UniProtKB/TrEMBL annotation:
Main subcellular location: membrane
Organism per entry: Tenacibaculum adriaticum
GO molecular function: serine-type endopeptidase activity
Keyword RNA-binding annotated: no
Entry-linked Pfam families: Rhomboid
Domain Peptidase S54 rhomboid residues, every copy: 54-185
Name of the protein described by the UniProt record: Membrane associated rhomboid family serine protease
Subcellular location field: Membrane
Length: 235
């Protein structure tokens, strides 16, 4: 398949990321409007009741600053995923989101972990590492743009700030890298250069040995001779 045919714009590139961002804002609006607090629906590690947060926590945010800081990179990276990796985008988002939450549930400290930052790190990791692994020039360019825009996020996979779920960030980074390896042969891949074969190439075998040209045999035409004797002509 021609790689260039896969770089076609479709409405899903913006529609699905917009719906995702709209949904997390809508959930936060419900909390403000009705005075609800969904924080305890987040991931609570190694607790069966806290396992439901694996599915719910990306839609829950503690305050407007938390929500705003996740919204912009979530939209940009999600749109990049659906444009450059449309063949596996939905799988990365759904399977990767679940595995990120699951790994957070396994390794995180005992506290409620909420927010879509784990998904942001998942998308950041997948988009960055996929471009490097596939070595396609457009994907590598996207990887460089991603690291330029959001490269500073890498520090937050470490416990450097109180109240930040660095375990969720680390989980997203690990799962994104793993999926980039798993899907390295899906979708757009680097095309191998094909050399055109010339007449000179046919003079050598696959091991580089010279093959002398075979000259065609000359066809000899048959000549029929008729001898006429002078005696016969006089008669």
């Amino acid at each position: 398949m021609n790689n260039d045919n896969q770089f076609k714009f479709s409405q899903s590139v913006f529609v699905l990321p917009f719906l995702f961002v709209f949904l997390i804002w809508f959930v936060y609006w419900l909390e403000i409007q009705f005075g609800w607090n969904f924080n305890k629906l987040g991931i609570y590690p190694r607790n069966l009741s806290g396992f439901k947060g694996v599915f719910i926590s990306p839609f829950i945010h503690s305050n407007i600053s938390h929500l705003f800081n996740n919204s912009i990179p979530l939209f940009v990276l999600c749109a990049s995923l659906f444009y450059f990796y449309k063949d596996v985008a939905l799988r990365v988002l759904l399977i990767g989101g679940f595995l990120t939450g699951l790994l957070t549930w396994v390794i995180a400290r005992e506290s409620f972990h909420i927010g879509a930052s784990g998904i942001v790190y998942l998308l950041f990791s997948f988009v960055f590492f996929s471009g490097i692994i596939k070595k396609h020039y457009r994907l590598v360019a996207m990887s460089l743009i991603t690291i330029f825009l959001y490269g500073s996020m890498i520090w937050y996979v470490l416990p450097i700030k109180e109240g930040v779920s660095w375990e969720g960030h680390l989980s997203g980074l690990i799962i994104g890298f793993s999926l980039a390896i798993i899907y390295r042969n899906r979708g757009i891949v680097k095309e191998k250069f094909q050399f055109s074969k010339t007449a000179f190439d046919t003079m050598f075998d696959e091991n580089g040995n010279y093959i002398p040209p075979v000259e065609p045999e000359e066809t000899k035409s048959e000549l029929n001779y008729k001898y006429v004797y002078l005696a016969d002509e006089e008669e």
